[in-house]
């Protein structure tokens, strides 16, 4: 399951980042979004979603959200 499939208000654990784009992986890592970290979906938007990672809230588009696998 990825962030696009997540329920609003629930906390999930990042399982993996599924992409070959090293820049995207580095960007998500800089946000604190990497394997084993908790992530909470705050809301789903038309073009993506708002997530809470560590102490920050971020808007990410559907393409990035689909690369973040959660459990």
From TrEMBL:
All residue ranges annotated as the Ferrous iron transporter FeoA-like domain in the record: 1-71
Membrane-spanning intervals of the chain: none
Pfam families per record: FeoA
Gene3D superfamilies hit by this protein: 2.30.30.90
Keywords: Iron
GO MF term list: transition metal ion binding
Name of the featured protein: Ferrous iron transport protein A
């Amino acid at each position: 399951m990825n962030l696009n499939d997540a329920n609003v208000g629930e906390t999930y654990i990042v399982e993996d980042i599924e992409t070959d784009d090293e820049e995207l992986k580095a960007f998500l890592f800089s946000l604190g979004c990497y394997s084993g970290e908790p992530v909470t979906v705050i809301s789903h938007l038309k073009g993506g979603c708002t997530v809470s990672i560590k102490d920050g809230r971020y808007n990410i588009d559907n393409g990035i959200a689909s690369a973040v696998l959660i459990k």
